[in-house]
Amino acid sequence: MTIEINLLPWREQRRERRSKRFQLALMAMVVVGLAGGAGMTYYYQQALDVQQQRNAHITAQSARLDRDIRSIREYEAEIERLEAQIAVFRRLQEGRPQTVHVFNQLTASLEEGVHYTELTRQGDQLRLTGLAENNRQVSDQLRALGAATAFDVPSLSEVEADEGQARRRFSLSVPQRMPGQPLAEEDES
C-alpha cells in the first residue's frame, strides 16, 4: 500500500482557484461594462437621432412658416394695391357726373362773342384760354364763371390783343367747386 501524498500545497490550489474566479469575475465585469457602455452609447445615439429629427422638423416647419409669411405679405401688398385701384375707380366714378356738370356749366356760362380755344385740368383747377371780341366780354365771362355753381372765383391771368385783329386772347384759371362745398363769399363771412 502506498501512501499518496499530495505534493502540491493546498494553498497553491486555493490561490489558483481564487485567481480563476477573479479572472472570471473580471471578465464578467469587463463584459458587463462593455455591454453597459454599448447600451448607453446606443441610448444616447438614439436620443441624439430623435433630437436631430425634431430639429429637422422644426427647421422644415420654420421654413414653411417663412414661406407662408412671405406669401401673406405678398397678398397684403396685392390687397393694398387693389384697394388703391378701387379707390381710384371710385373717385373716377364719383367724378363722372361732376365732369359732365363742369362742361354743362362751361357751356351755360359762355358769353356771346367768347370762344374757348384750350381747356386744361390739373386736379380741381381748370385753366381756360380763349378769344373775345373786347375786354367787356372777358369781364362778363369772368362774372358768369364766378356765378356758376360748379366753379369758385376765377382769376384772370392775362389778356392780350391779337395782332391785326380786333379780338382779345385771354387766359384764366378757375377752381372747381366740389359738390356740397360752400361758395367762396360764404366762407369769408
Structure description:
Strands 1-2-4-3 form a 4-stranded antiparallel sheet. It is rod-shaped and about 175 Å long. It has 2 domains: 14-108; 114-188, Alpha-Beta Plaits (2-Layer Sandwich). Helices cover 62% and strands 17% of the residues. β3 (155-161) and β4 (168-175) form a beta hairpin. The protein has 3 helices and 4 strands, in the order αββαββα. With 189 residues, the protein is α+β, with helices and mostly antiparallel strands. Mean pLDDT is 87; it is low at 185-189. The protein starts with 9 loop residues before the first helix and ends with a helix. Residues 162-189 are annotated as: Disordered. The chain crosses the membrane at residues 24-44. This is PilN domain-containing protein. Residues 65-92 form a coiled coil. Keywords: Coiled coil, Membrane, Transmembrane, Transmembrane helix.
